[in-house]
Amino acid sequence: MSSTTQDSDVASHPTLKITGVEQLKPPGSESNYLDWSWILDIHFTATDVDYVIHDKPEDAKAKPNWARDNKAVCGVISRTIHPTNIRNVRHLKNDARGLWDALKRAHQDSSAGGVTYWLRKLTSSRMVNDDLSAHLEDMAKTFERLSSLVTSEAPLTPNDIYSSSILTSLPTDWLACVSSMMNEPRVDPDRVIDALKAEELRRKTRSSDQPIVESVSQASNKKSSKSKSAKQDQPTRHCTFCNLDGHDLNRCFNVARLIENHKLNQAPPKNKKVSRSELRSSRPPGTQDQNTYDIILA
Q: Residues annotated as region Disordered (predicted)?
């Protein structure tokens, strides 16, 4: 079959009859890879060419229509991706499976950050062991992520470098207040600085409030301690009549009742005057706490 006939045969392939698919955006926080790949996967299945990207290469190539189907899948993918994705797959124009897998890798976890995130990750990368190859491979992947976000329409700017440098200079405990910004495509350095100053003010306020809280707590504890000490210093009241603690003789209910009964029993007739000596001589001998009664009756 001639080349012209093959091209004509591919042009009429049902897989190429697709419209309305949103272009695959560049890798990054706005990547629509999941939606794009889902739509195309269904389309390839419906037109019986999904084996090209899902079956083992040796099994797929063994099928009689593989060459034609492979070209059709390549054509659909190339029509439905944004030009910025080409840098990731430029060397795979005749390999549909390789094209599909390369785009998947380029967009995998791309929503984890924008230019600032990947630039900071690239510049702060350090080799942590003796495996140089693994370290360079990780840096190359990070560089690819960053490169996919930097285009002629949105080039890398001094502001991007400044924002990244600020974040790289910070201890890890300061990054929490700006971590959400790093998921954005671009982060203006003024926003980073404002967020960091607000965090600094919050920390200073919390630090200045701490001595006040401690002072109030100490004063409260001291007051409570003084109150307990005052109660402990007070002498224990003891009633000599009842021989019990808790009250004294002046507040003894039993003494008051006894005195009242004694007065009622010893009261003279209304028309008779009784001298003090007679009243004393009428008191029964041997009564407990005699002096107390003498004082009260006197």
A: 202-237, 264-291
CB 70 within 8 A of CB 96: yes
Tell me the pTM: 0.40
Domain residue extents for the chain: 3-110, 113-192, 239-297
Identify the three-state secondary structure at position 238: strand
116: enclosing H helix or E strand? helix 115-123
Which comes out higher in pLDDT, residue 182 or 18? 18
Whether 140 contacts 88, CB under 8 Å? no
Cβ 169 vs Cβ 106: under 8 Å: no
- How far CA 278 is from CA of 73, 168, 201, 263, 274, in Å, comes to 136, 108, 91, 14, 6
Secondary structure (DSSP) of 137-186: HHHHHHHHHHHHH--SSS---HHHHHHHHHHHHS-GGGGGGTGGGGGSS-
Dihedral sign, Cα of residue 283, residue 288, residue 290, residue 294:
negative
